[in-house]
Amino acid sequence: MSKMKIAFFTVRPSFSSHCSVWSLMHLLANDIERIDVFSQNDVLSGLTLPENVGCIYVHGSSRSSIDSEYVGAKFLSLIRKFKDYLKGYKFTAMVHDAIRDTIKNKIRDRKMIWGSFGDLRRVLASTELLEIIDGKCRNVLYDFAIGLGHQGLILAHMSLPGIPLVYFSDEIFYNGHPEFHGPKFSLEKNLEKQAFNDVALVLIQDEDRAGLLFRDNGVPYQPEKVIHFPVSWPGKARIWRSDFFIQRFPELQRKKLLLQHGSLVPQRHTGELLQVSTKCPETYSMVFHGKLSPYLKRNYNQAKCWFSEPNAPIEKLEEVAAGAHIGLVFYTASNENDRLIAHASGQLALYLKCGVPVIVNNKGTLAPLVRSWNCGLVVENERDIFDAADLISQDYKFYCQKAVECFNEEYNLQKFYPPLLKKLKN
């Protein structure tokens, strides 16, 4: 084992569903002496990881001390319940989100920027966390710093200047992204560009996304700095099936399950899939495993499907995917982050790892990948999924085997990790 020590920076609230980080931690832990994850919250809570991976965070973390006061906690609980009520209906959810975004862009973001003078890291992290980071970094000699996403990169760059910097890119929130704007986002993008000039290594899913990231930061593409690391899971693929959903829904025992799992949101075409579930043939049943967007509550109420609570830990998610006959993987193409999704979809990789064929929509980089490997079928419209499921079922073993082959070639992290370790050691 190498004596290297890693400082890992993130602003994510949790890694409980972040398979690429979880996988990377497991791989690095075998070769690195220590990995310290700096975060506002305990992002490793509930995860099974080696002992040399730890989270350094603000204990009892909150940006305000009011949570610890009985009256304050009671008041906040009422506010959360009111927010949950508003999000229970499409119209009120739209009103809630509009008010939230206005407050965020016009008031909260500007207040955070004003409060960050003297230390721009305060835009991203609390004063308490920054004090912890600075104290730890004075006492520990880290060999390199990893920043997750553009915000983690900024924290890493400003907290440990002068040591090798790794940009671990998961989502690409580029300038011009339709969902991200405002003064805080503009400031973050400027800080990202400054940090990007000092990046020694970029860890990213594939060539398409790497090209977008370099263009967004105004830097000519430098392939020697890029290591591909798809969103995936440790180990090789194999064909196997679980009774995960049969345990939850015994009435589905004789059905072929068409499963969508993960984020159940409009951007994943969940609304359209819920609508077509009313036309589902008796041979199949449609199952949705995940947290349902409030915008889709009406679609769900009118659907003919089964909804599975997303309470399985990350170590058990393979059982979720293996409970399906066919996986449904649909993404919007309204932004580049979702369009260039072929190697950035955890749900796709998980289906393939279990030898589960997939049905995908004909948008973005998913379609050519599935066509080239014959690991499923591409449809033009959600209404076509049942015909596609029939075709897959007619030659099911073939598609299952192709799913395994696709994973072992495109998503097997044992192929992508050695080049990363070599770069880090050098």
Which short descriptors sum up this protein?
13 strands; 3 domains; alpha/beta; 426 residues; Rossmann fold; 7-stranded parallel β-sheet; 17 helices; 6-stranded parallel β-sheet
Structure description:
By secondary structure, the chain is of the alpha/beta class. The protein has three domains: 180 residues, Rossmann fold; 50 residues, no CATH class; 167 residues, 3-Layer(aba) Sandwich (Rossmann fold), CATH 3.40.50. Helices cover 42% and strands 16% of the residues. It is built from 17 helices and 13 strands. The strands form two sheets. The protein has a seven-stranded parallel sheet with strand order 3-2-1-4-5-6-7, sandwiched between helices. Helix 5 crosses helix 6 and helix 13 packs across helix 16.
Mean pLDDT: 89
Oligomer category: single chain
CATH-assigned homologous superfamily of the largest domain: Glycogen Phosphorylase B
Distance between the termini: 15 Å
- What structural category characterises the helix and strand content? alpha/beta
How many distinct helices?
17
Kindly state the percentage of residues in helix.
Answer: 40-55%
CATH topology tier name of the largest domain? Rossmann fold
What value does the Rg take, in angstroms? 22 Å
Tally of structural domains: 3
Secondary-structure element series: EHEEHHHEHEHEHEHEHEHEHEHHEHEHHH
In the CATH scheme, the class of the largest domain would be: Alpha Beta
SS strand fraction = 15-25%
Instruction: Give the overall silhouette.
Output: globular
| Low-confidence parts | 61-71
Widest sheet: strand ordering: 3-2-1-4-5-6-7
